[in-house]
Recover the amino acids of this structure.
């Protein structure tokens, strides 16, 4: 059902955890759908220096969270805002159709975290 | 890596004794049982023998057994066949909120056709209040349909008590006994049942065969029209090999049931005790009274984590279990059984079912207990719900997704 890349990110998720002095935090999803993603950012000079995540959810939710952190690190916040859920799914060689709408929220969580950063550091 | 299969409530491997008696019916005994010639005669007897074997297991007469293709067909036939036959007598069905979709979705389809259905609620342990059942009966009630045991929690329902109520009010009584046959004593006379459904693949027969018990004199409209098979009650050339296999599986289930109960119950209790001792923040789903649950079933929620991610992690160790999470049900909602029990929504998403069976060993259970605590902890460490100051223990407002 899942691609090798999804299983790789699911079994060895990158950047799990929290950033203590994060200057941007975003959370999306809700418990009733079974997916909650929280992204922590460390932004310096508008560049994402560090990203960590915590996710409650299925294999796809965890894998997309892990993938989005890898994709975001080193990007400017404007570049990161252009990352889409679709791009995250493609980077994982695709997700099962039924997961595309419910568990593919990692880019949204990243965008929320950037929004939060901008609000704090506007 | 040794594979550990703990999903017997989903399906079971065909037992070697069953396969052995089936094999001749693919080649030497290939005839159509309806044929009068030698090829037909060679198989007709085998079907009648299987009918006896099935009847013996549930204390019925062979003539009261009709072979079908699966449990879902049996449930559809019991419900739709009753309502069609009793048209004019009434249009009300009483069932429960925790039935298998084969019953639940059949009832929902009938509602669209204008029938009335009462779905009895369950308490937080998944138990029925029979006062609710009595109160729901009207002069239009023509069928009570209550499962013998629940596939997700293993809860066993008071079928004999319900049978008495049905008899008192002269209402037809159907039970989906797919999960209970072979695991606990099933006696259609004691329970005053009119209709009971069995599935082959849950008890070591192959997929694609089941049976329905129809009490003598019970008027039914067939689901399938066509040939005269099964005394005009179910058209279609019989699945001879499958039926022979189902007969053998029923015979074995009858001979071995007490031994099975003792052995599997001890293993399940070992697993249940081990998980309770070693994993904090869990919730048992179903009745805590182990005597009132199937001997092989344990359903437990691990707070803060989601079921599919746990199943995938266990799968990496070769352990097969199942979950009530939305992600494994193919919908956006967690299990309707968890919803009916008012299980808090994140706990419903984490509900995990271990169902043991014939080939389960002590070593299998111990392997699960070795792997599970660290696996749960690893996923919890990844969860934003864990150690965030909130608890997901009890459901005060019943914030859960209900199907009904």
């Amino acid at each position: 059902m899942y691609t090798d890349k999804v299983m790789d990110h699911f079994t060895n998720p990158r950047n799990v955890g929290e950033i203590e002095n994060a200057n941007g935090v975003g959370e999306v999803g809700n418990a009733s759908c079974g997916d909650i993603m929280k992204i922590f950012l460390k932004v310096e000079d508008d560049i994402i220096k560090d990203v960590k995540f915590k996710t409650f959810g299925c294999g796809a939710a965890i894998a997309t969270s892990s993938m989005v952190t890898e994709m975001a690190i080193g990007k400017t916040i404007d570049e990161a805002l252009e990352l889409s859920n679709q791009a995250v799914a493609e980077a994982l060689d695709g997700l099962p159709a039924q997961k595309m709408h419910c568990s593919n929220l990692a880019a949204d969580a990243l965008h929320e975290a950037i929004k939060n950063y901008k609000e704090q550091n506007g | 890596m040794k594979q550990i299969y703990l999903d017997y409530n989903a399906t079971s491997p065909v037992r070697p004794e069953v396969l052995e008696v089936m094999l001749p019916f693919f080649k030497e005994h290939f005839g159509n049982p309806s044929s009068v010639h030698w090829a037909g005669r060679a198989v007709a007897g085998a079907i009648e023998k299987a009918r006896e074997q099935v009847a013996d297991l549930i204390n019925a007469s062979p003539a009261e057994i009709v072979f079908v293709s699966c449990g879902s067909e049996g449930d559809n036939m019991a419900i739709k066949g009753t309502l069609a036959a009793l048209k004019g007598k009434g249009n009300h069905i009483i069932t429960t909120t925790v039935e298998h979709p084969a019953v639940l979705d059949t009832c929902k389809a009938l509602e669209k056709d204008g029938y009335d259905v009462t779905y009895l609620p369950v308490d937080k342990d998944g138990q029925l209040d029979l006062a609710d059942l009595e109160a729901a009966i009207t002069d239009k009630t023509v069928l009570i349909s209550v499962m013998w045991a629940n596939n997700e929690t293993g809860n066993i329902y008071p079928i004999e008590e319900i049978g008495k109520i049905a008899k008192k009010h002269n209402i037809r009584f159907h039970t989906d006994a797919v999960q209970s046959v072979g695991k606990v004593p099933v006696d259609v006379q004691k329970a005053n049942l009119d209709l009971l459904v069995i599935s082959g693949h849950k008890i070591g027969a192959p997929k694609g065969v089941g049976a329905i018990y129809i009490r003598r004199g019970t008027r039914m409209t067939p689901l399938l029209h066509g040939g005269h098979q099964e005394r005009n009650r179910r058209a279609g050339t019989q699945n001879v090999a499958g039926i022979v296999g189902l007969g053998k599986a029923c015979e074995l289930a009858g001979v071995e049931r007490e031994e099975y109960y003792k052995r599997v119950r001890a293993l399940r209790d070992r697993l249940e005790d081990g998980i309770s001792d070693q994993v904090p923040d869990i919730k048992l789903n179903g009745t805590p009274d182990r005597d009132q649950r199937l001997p092989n079933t344990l359903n437990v929620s691990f707070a803060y984590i989601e079921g599919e991610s746990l199943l995938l992690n266990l799968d990496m160790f070769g352990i097969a279990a199942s979950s009530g999470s939305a992600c494994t049900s193919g919908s956006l909602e967690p299990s309707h059984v968890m919803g009916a029990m008012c299980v808090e929504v994140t706990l419903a998403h984490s509900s995990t079912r271990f169902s043991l069976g014939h080939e389960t060993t002590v070593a299998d259970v111990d392997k699960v207990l070795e792997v599970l605590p660290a696996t749960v902890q690893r996923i919890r460490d990844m969860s934003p719900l864990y150690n965030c100051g909130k608890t997901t223990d009890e459901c005060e407002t019943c914030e859960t997704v209900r199907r009904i």
